[in-house]
Write a structure and sequence with these properties.
metal-binding; single chain; three-stranded mixed β-sheet; alpha+beta
Length: 157
Amino acid sequence: MDAKHKELNIATIKEVLRQYLQEKGFRNTPERYTILEEIYNLEHHFNVDDLYLLMMQKKYHVSKATIYNTIEIFLDAGLIRKHQFGEKTLTSSSYEKSYFNMQHDHMVIYKKDSNKEIQEIIEFCDPRIQGIKESIENAFGVNIDSHSLYFYGTKKD
């Protein structure tokens, strides 16, 4: 993605956040926008500890509690998505930016002979999953808004 396109995306998500905060009556703080921008500059999944360390390295003075509270706001606003990949970390949830991302699924690859230490997370889209979703909607008379599908394993030798 080129710099101009990235800048437009950042402006868009900041406006989404501004509107959300206004609708909910939450304070419109600069820390929230800084955290959001850092998240949208990431190219991978992250957890709160990762984000906190990144913010500290960049000399942002933000507490871990502020990050946790802000993450909850971003989740509710639809700006990020939460995952439970089963990783063994202090904070067991992972997150990813979601505003511009289409629905996708995940394959979690663990390191061999480890206690669920993640080697790699592969994102994928398979059109057959959309067909399954539509079959379930028809069978149960529902509209499915979103789903999550995780496969877990190790690489073959």
